[in-house]
Design goal:
The protein has 419 residues and is of the alpha+beta class. The chain has 16 helices and 16 strands. It folds into two domains: 13-170 and 226-316, Bira Bifunctional Protein, Domain 2 (BirA Bifunctional Protein, domain 2); 326-418, Anticodon-binding domain (Rossmann fold, 3-Layer(aba) Sandwich). The strands form three sheets. Strands 1-5-6-11-10-9-7-8 form an eight-stranded mixed sheet, sandwiched between helices. Bound molecules: histidyl-adenosine monophosphate. Histidyl-adenosine monophosphate binds next to strand 6, strand 10, strand 11 and helix 12.
Length: 419
């Protein structure tokens, strides 16, 4: 049998209800905060990602699905959405209409990482980006909105981790201080970090290898090297989050895995997913738009890992899986014909209705009703049809009442919507 590719997964009917709920909750919340949806292609020119995420990052060096198309152009299956959003902002001159754009997008991303729980090669992200605002107040607003989404989904076992990565003015001094530190612990670093130390020292702080983590435990932190402006920006973000009652912790080690970040960076972390603790991550990328050939506009955004979020929402909402409203147990040919008509009419009224057109007996039909998690079952045989009344059973209390066949759709509609 042909199986799916390692690291890829099917999202099965039992799970899609939860995914839809999360997507709808996010979209409606983001739209209330003034965001508009943007839909982007999955394939982009490879250069878009190497120039934005950074060619010395794990994503670009090792994880991208890149191939030459038939004409020999290098194209990549997007590993993230921020670069594509920025590309679209520049390409469609969205800034000419209004430099401030608040955009969100939901869709699959691809990274060839080692698969494990919470880590897939095709995974889904919910992204939100604010382009064109440099005020630290918007950083707080965005983090507030993200925290609110977790609240609305009844997820409580998460914490906001916050850091600042400075700007091109203060970062070089910090990088030199970090390099001086790293040269003292070189022998303790993994082979990758030996190279990173020269090319991209910040990445060493992000390494997951235990020996490297121990070696950098006392490494200098960017927040101790911020310039006056970055310091003031960070202070306002922290004060605004306090004013908005968003709890957070300062995480001096948080560097993120992409090179475009400046100033505010953050992650939502959880203990519920084993090694994969980040459910969402984001930050400012004030230099990215200009570096990709657009106007000098600041920006900030985040991406939520939808697969990971669905896993923790499922843990927190064990009883959330919803069943149907009504199952029509039709016994006999005449009853099945009537059930077809009734079920179509009730479905059109927004009442989730199922029926069964096979020749099962009552026992078999009740089993199907249970499998559907039906709240109510309407039992109608040819005999009931002749007598002019069917039986409606409340599946939670097991109470039964009689419902007139004449005007049955209206009768059921008022009964079921009232309960
Ligand atoms: P990221 O931290 O690379 O940031 O990814 C964001 C989230 O996507 C992670 O916190 C995680 O939940 C999820 N994720 C990443 N890789 C995987 C994977 N292999 N399997 C499952 N989930 C995964 C970005 O992508 C940035 N573009 C975020 C951003 C937007 N920054 C500014 N704007």
């Amino acid at each position: 049998m042909i199986q799916l590719i390692r690291g890829f997964k099917d999202i099965l009917p039992g799970e899609t209800g939860l995914w839809q709920k999360i997507e709808k909750t996010a979209a409606s919340l983001f739209e209330d905060f003034g965001f508009c949806e943007i839909r982007l292609p999955i394939l982009e020119h490879t250069e878009l990602f190497s120039r934005s995420i950074g060619k010395d990052t794990d994503i670009v060096e090792k994880e991208m699905y890149t191939f030459a198309d038939r004409k020999g152009d290098f194209i990549t299956m997007r590993p993230e959405a921020t670069a594509s959003i920025v590309r679209a902002y520049i390409q469609h001159r969205m800034y000419a209409v209004d430099p401030v754009q608040k955009l969100y997008t939901i869709g699959p991303m691809f990274r060839r990482e080692r698969p494990q729980k919470g880590r897939y090669r095709q995974f889904y992200q919910i992204n939100a980006e604010v382009i064109g605002v440099d005020s630290p107040l918007v950083d707080a607003q965005l983090i507030f909105m993200l925290a609110e989404l977790f609240k609305r989904l009844s997820v409580s076992d998460v914490s906001v981790h916050l850091n600042s990565l400075g700007c091109p003015k203060c970062r070089p001094d910090f990088t030199r201080a970090l390099q001086r530190f790293l040269s003292k612990v070189t022998t303790q670093l993994c082979a990758d970090c030996q190279k990173r130390k020269e090319k991209n020292p910040l990445r060493v702080l992000d390494c997951k290898v235990l020996a490297c983590r121990e070696a950098v435990a006392d490494a200098p932190a960017m927040i101790d090297h911020l310039c006056g402006e970055c310091e003031a920006h960070f202070t306002t973000v922290k004060n605004s989050l306090n004013n908005l009652s968003v709890q957070f912790e300062i995480d001096r080690r948080l560097v993120r895995g992409l090179d475009y970040y400046t100033r505010t960076t953050f992650e939502i972390q959880t203990g519920l997913l084993g090694a994969q603790s980040a459910v969402a991550g984001g930050g400012r990328y004030d230099g990215l738009i200009e570096s990709l050939g657009g106007p000098a506009q600041p920006a900030i955004g985040f991406a939520i890992g939808l697969d990971r979020l669905a896993e923790i929402v499922a843990v927190n909402n064990k009883d959330a899986a919803g069943g149907i409203d009504l199952f029509i147990a039709a016994l006999g040919e005449k009853a099945k014909t009537a059930a077809l008509e009734w079920s179509c009419a009730l479905s059109l009224c927004g009442i989730k209705t199922e029926t069964d057109f096979s020749n099962k007996g009552l026992k078999g039909l009740m089993k199907r009703a249970d499998r559907h998690g039906a709240g109510w079952v309407l039992i109608a045989g040819d005999k009931e049809l002749d007598e002019g009344a069917a039986v409606l059973r409340d599946m939670s209390t097991k109470e039964q009442l009689s419902v007139k066949i004449e005007g049955i759709v209206e009768n059921l509609k008022s009964k079921l919507t009232a309960s």
